[in-house]
Amino acid sequence: MNPCNSVKITKLSAPDVVVINENNQEPIVLDCEYEINSIEKGFVLKWLLDGSPIYQWIPSRAPFALRSFKDRVNVSYEASSEQNYKHRALVITRPLWNFTGEYLCNVQTYESNDRKSKKIQFIQPETKFDVSFDNVDDEFAVVRCSVDGIAPKPNVTLRINDVQQLDITEQVTQSDDNLYHIVVHTKQFRERLSEGASIQCELKIPGANYIKTKDISYSNSSSTKLSTPATIMISIVMFLISKL
């Protein structure tokens, strides 16, 4: 085989991290640029995710997506006006967080083949992120951080006056669609929490530049815990009784 006549991938372009935006998602374009000699026959381009085919194109036929990518890829997208390069790109329009993995572009002819790959991390951002404290009695306060609707699982850290709290309790659950709900809390002596102490919660997804923080200040005379509807109703009833 003459290397000069072999199909060869020259560049694979794709993002490292994608934060999913369900309200206004920009298409994610994975482009596979290659060179092919006009004398080569039987050209086929395939995209694979973690070794499983998800997209295929033969220049004489229409491209098509496979598996869970069927309704989430723009198969009419044209990366080039030239026939042998027209549908080389994989364009994901409606990503899911479990699309994370190793994306491989494979190009082949009857005579030769080449492949390149790249890891992409998809993130489903949190729907809720809160930090709070509750003065539960005269002696103790509970400091709490909660995160809802996120994937993959983040690391959640609590800090008080910039000191990471190691004596914590973490509760982790997953919804039916495998999104995470995480609550981290620690119990503190109120006498050790100075008025205005900084309370910070940080969530971080390993392997991605995705970090969020929230800060509040501690108050010895109040609590950030909101009243539930039941508590509000009891207060109204007691007020009305007192007026009778």
TrEMBL record:
Ig-like domain location: 15-121
Q: Which residues form a coiled coil?
A: none
Gene3D superfamilies attached to this UniProt entry: Immunoglobulins
This chain belongs to the protein called CSON009928 protein
Q: Say which species the protein is native to.
A: Culicoides sonorensis
